[in-house]
Prior knowledge:
The complex is a heterodimer of chains A (about 325) and B (about 375).
Chain A: H1 2-11, E1 15-19, H2 35-39, E2 44-46, H3 51-63, E3 67-71, H4 82-89, H5 92-95, E4 105-110, H6 125-129, E5 135-138, H7 142-154, E6 159-164, E7 188-191, E8 196-200, H8 204-214, E9 220-224, E10 227-229, H9 233-243, E11 246-253, H10 258-270, E12 279-283, H11 294-297, H12 301-313
Chain B: H1 41-66, H2 80-88, E1 95-97, H3 103-108, H4 113-121, H5 130-133, H6 144-159, E2 165-170, H7 177-188, E3 193-199, E4 202-203, E5 206-207, H8 219-222, E6 227-232, H9 236-251, E7 257-262, H10 281-288, H11 292-302, H12 308-330, H13 350-369
Parallel strand pairs in B: 1-2, 2-3, 3-7, 6-7
Antiparallel strand pairs in B: 4-5
Helix pairs in contact in B: 1-2, 1-11, 1-12, 2-9, 6-7
Amino acid sequence: xxxxxxxxxxxxxxxxxxxxxxxxxxxxxxxxxxxxxxxxxxxxxxxxxxxxxxxxxxxxxxxxxxxxxxxxxxxxxxxxxxxxxxxxxxxxxxxxxxxxxxxxxxxxxxxxxxxxxxxxxxxxxxxxxxxxxxxxxxxxxxxxxxxxxxxxxxxxxxxxxxxxxxxxxxxxxxxxxxxxxxxxxxxxxxxxxxxxxxxxxxxxxxxxxxxxxxxxxxxxxxxxxxxxxxxxxxxxxxxxxxxxxxxxxxxxxxxxxxxxxxxxxxxxxxxxxxxxxxxxxxxxxxxxxxxxxxxxxxxxxxxxxxxxxxxxxx
Amino acid sequence: xxxxxxxxxxxxxxxxxxxxxxxxxxxxxxxxxxxxxxxxxxxxxxxxxxxxxxxxxxxxxxxxxxxxxxxxxxxxxxxxxxxxxxxxxxxxxxxxxxxxxxxxxxxxxxxxxxxxxxxxxxxxxxxxxxxxxxxxxxxxxxxxxxxxxxxxxxxxxxxxxxxxxxxxxxxxxxxxxxxxxxxxxxxxxxxxxxxxxxxxxxxxxxxxxxxxxxxxxxxxxxxxxxxxxxxxxxxxxxxxxxxxxxxxxxxxxxxxxxxxxxxxxxxxxxxxxxxxxxxxxxxxxxxxxxxxxxxxxxxxxxxxxxxxxxxxxxxxxxxxxxxxxxxxxxxxxxxxxxxxxxxxxxxxxxxxxxxxxxxxxxxxxxxxxx
Lengths: 314, 370
């Protein structure tokens, strides 16, 4: 993430970083570490502590040609900015018949699994995918973090960028050649397989890959959805038509969650290829529980494999 | 620890004890010197003419609403001094952030009235090109545009452009969180932005004393380190004097400026509202006596800056303006339904393309039947 942001700032002097503690501290997760030192206080801006103000002033800056990248400190703190994001950021292009462009990126560390207190483990993606005018993406690994953040910053549309916070510590080789990178609105097959498609994004991609690795009975294909809006149906439908079975996995509550959109779309467009209904794995419809209970809440390898087994038992 | 952003004490930021006034209710000059320079006769003459045209435009838009030509129209009748003053205090390159009640200000800015009214007629969410006029789309949620104005003004400061922004809000919007975040961000970033609060005494039906317990709305700026002032919003000379000083304050690098203008909307909130349910005729009458146009006319005539020919010319210009608007609004522009998909994203998403195709086949089926 840090290298990707640095690259974007080097490439375009209009790129600004704004947020709470993003300067000297480098953000609470140190994602912006060292950037203020190298690019100065005018480009890496510690803002007052007010999320609506951060997004609102970013909109004003974008109106005059800047490309602000706003850091929301934690998923649960994005809601004071919800009005600015959904009624202003998302709608300005259409409101102005295309004359006002807002290339603003809102970075949101998301999801649970780090033993955090309340409001620090949420998965609010469905609130944003429901709103036309926003692009919503989630990275799942270090290489995508590096490339997707740069693609998001280059994008002329507003982008909600989800970063699975428990994967911040993951280590993996990063391909730095941006020209070879998959466009950030495309899904990718993270692991090819033949018997069943597991669709996941953000933190659940790794969990799904581990499940696929562990399953000795089935050949599981894992598709990293990456872009929740727009949705790369081509890649997803091709996979499901091939395997005939599909399990959707996310951390957010299953009820009315993003997986419902995937399941409905796949059912409509792959009906005659399906051997079983699309099954969903996700969180419960409770507020996120206290962290000592989160292992019971979060989907894990066993719940993914259980759903896979159920699609075969249908 | 004293804040290094603001060197002086709070008394430098405080508004005057009474709203700044240059004119009495009948348009005589008030005694004593003001801390604000008197606007030039030329500027005041322009303001007079713009207010006469603006009021006629407003009356015509209200009439068009009654005829069903507009879905809704929030009138600013009674607030002409603020509507016109806000625009005349700005230069062409400065940015204006209006609410839904600023239609009069927008025509004063030179935007075609049909483009201004496209929002209220339901043709488009914004009928004019914001870049061409340096005017943001009219805002219907309260105070959301104030943070945009703070951000844009901050951008202008970073560029060293010398341009400023002015954001309008009403008294009700000063209770919104965004108003406070905007004041705070603007002050911390030293953004060259004017926040003009038209305190017309009611947020639809709710009076000011249910909105705030502050000594005045202008006092709200002081807590953020913002130079603040209150002004008789029906005194066009005072409004222009304070706005001109505020623009200079912002343009010369002193950061934001908050103005509370005391005024009154003589009509209901919109045509859908009934003001008799929450305020008395006597109260409205009291404000009608402080008519900004009559006051400025009396003042300028007394000083020899306005003649019968001038007032006749303004009246004719106003009638012409209204007549052109009536004709233009009688035309029914064809709207392209598929256009709703055009500007959601830079490039439509596959999902939007699918939805557009579905609407297109509906339209084609309808056409085949017709």
